[in-house]
Write a structure and sequence with these properties.
InterPro entries: Pyr_Knase, Pyrv/PenolPyrv_kinase-like_dom, Pyrv_kinase-like_dom_sf, Pyrv_Knase-like_insert_dom_sf, Pyrv_Knase_brl, Pyrv_Knase_C_sf, Pyrv_Knase_insert_dom_sf. It is built from 16 helices and 20 strands. The protein is of the alpha/beta class and 463 residues long.
């Protein structure tokens, strides 16, 4: 694993920090993925999200049926038309996700030092003493002392709807757990995560395949977010499935790394996937808290050097219920950008958060500020050194274009392309890139820096 360094322009004048942020003609180059849901599915709210910087709409099939998501997507189309803002569509699979089955959808109170039984018999009613789950192999996978986390879907980790359990004993197919903190499980869907345990469920389930083959094909999705990717073979199987669906052959696969198993096979997954999503929520449970930042920095660096987008999740949890992020969250977003992250994925903050538009706006502003002090020259030199010699023809052209742009202080590189390959190579060497001729919506995602040739009304040379 390579350690990464902050690519920060030095020195920063303290006076400039006190100056008000100036409105920029262009949005942040770091892209924002917004998860659409109950609080963010109206045309009005989606339009607001697009105006302040959302460039990818994420549809998570862990909850909601295809009809519900289709209604949301139709609203997105209307918002795109009215705002004239492009937005890509990302389908997020369920994958090997463990869920508590709560048919009555009633709140469940759990008290510290009490006991609760996890059972695979889904027909039983959920209560404070019994939680039915959707997996019949838990008793064989866990042992006494293992840690289990149960929380509301897209939990923030700081709320009272999350509970930590410790396995006390295994009784047949049931797992008896001690409750480590008092909590009330509220909401229609609770997810369950077992720390560092292999879950014998397919990464791409039959339900996922059906949704992709129907809803995905119908809507010609731009990105497939492959939840709980654990091996490169998971990506290959997903790509094989997409290749059989004619309309989705250009759909890119972003592997979500959510547990230690995926972490251990990160290099091979990176080689197969089109991009990586670092799911810090589940990773923060699977890994000790003090280790999460190490993986994040190393993974982002590897994505940068491979020329593949790195997406960071779980950045402003507090904005699910508050109008402003914490100081630590704001710094976290900026440092992620300085480390080389290409996009920020918002989950609970936009899906069920009270301030989806404000959240996207603030995250975008933080990203833009970080980009102002991002050392493009240093990043370029590091990338060239990593790629080495000999370069491919496209890499050589891209490298030369970026080198020339840096020397003449160009504001943007215009890249005419039909497939997008040339523009993505220039992105690998990290410089502003405008692109025309690309037929799909992919040109509005991640730090491929696609702007628009008609928007070049600013100072600086054009290379």
């Amino acid at each position: 694993m390579h350690a990464n360094h902050l690519l920060l322009e030095e020195p920063i004048r303290m006076a400039s920090i006190l100056e008000p942020s100036k409105a920029s003609f262009f949005p942040a180059m770091t892209k924002i993925v917004g998860t659409l849901g109950p609080k963010s599915r109206s045309v009005e709210v989606i339009s607001g999200c697009l105006k302040v910087g959302m460039s990818v709409a994420r549809f998570d099939f862990s909850w909601g049926d295809p009809d519900y998501h289709q209604e949301t997507l139709e609203n997105l189309k209307a918002a795109v038309k009215s705002t004239k803002k492009l937005c890509a569509v990302m389908l997020d699979t369920v994958g090997a996700e463990l869920q508590v089955v709560n048919k009555c959808e009633k709140s469940i109170s759990l008290l510290i030092d009490g006991f609760v039984v996890l059972t695979p018999y889904k027909d039983q009613e959920a209560s404070s003493e019994l939680l039915p789950i959707n997996f019949n192999g838990l008793a064989k996978a866990v042992k006494k002392g293992d840690t289990i986390f149960v929380g509301q879907y897209l939990f923030t980790g700081s709320e009272t709807t999350s509970v930590w359990l410790e396995v006390s004993e295994v009784k047949g197919d049931d797992v008896v757990c001690m409750i480590k903190n008092s909590a009330t499980l509220a909401g229609s869907l609770f997810t369950l995560h077992v720390s560092q345990i292999h879950i014998d469920l397919p990464t791409l389930s039959d339900k996922d395949k059906e949704v992709i083959s129907t809803w995905g094909v119908k809507n010609k999705i731009d990105f497939l977010s492959l939840s709980y990717t654990r091996h490169a073979e998971d990506v290959r199987q997903a790509r094989d499935h997409l290749s059989k669906l004619g309309d989705l052959q250009q759909t890119q696969i972003f592997a979500k790394i959510e547990n230690v198993e995926g972490l251990n096979h990160f290099d091979e997954i990176l080689q197969e996937a089109d991009g990586i999503i670092l799911s810090r929520g589940n990773l923060g449970i699977d890994l000790p808290p003090e280790k999460v930042f190490l993986f994040q920095k190393a993974a982002v660096y590897k994505c940068n050097m491979a020329g593949k987008p790195a997406v960071i999740t779980r950045v402003v949890d507090s904005m699910t219920d508050n109008l402003r992020p914490t100081r630590a969250e704001a710094t976290d977003v900026a440092n992620a950008v300085l480390d080389g992250s290409d996009a920020i994925l918002l989950g609970a903050e936009t899906l069920r958060g009270l301030y989806p538009v404000e959240t996207i706006s603030i995250v975008g502003k933080i990203c833009a500020e970080a980009e102002k002090v991002f050392n493009q020259d240093l990043y370029f030199k590091k990338t060239v050194k990593y790629v080495g010699e000999p370069m491919t023809h496209l890499e050589s052209i891209a490298s030369s274009a970026v080198r020339a742009a840096i020397k003449v202080k160009a504001s943007v590189i215009i890249c005419f392309t039909s497939s997008g390959r040339a523009a993505r190579y220039r992105w690998m060497f990290e410089y502003g890139c405008a692109c025309t001729g690309y037929p799909r919506k992919l040109n509005d995602l991640f730090r491929v820096h696609f702007l628009s040739v008609c928007k070049l009304s600013f100072g600086g040379s054009i290379c």
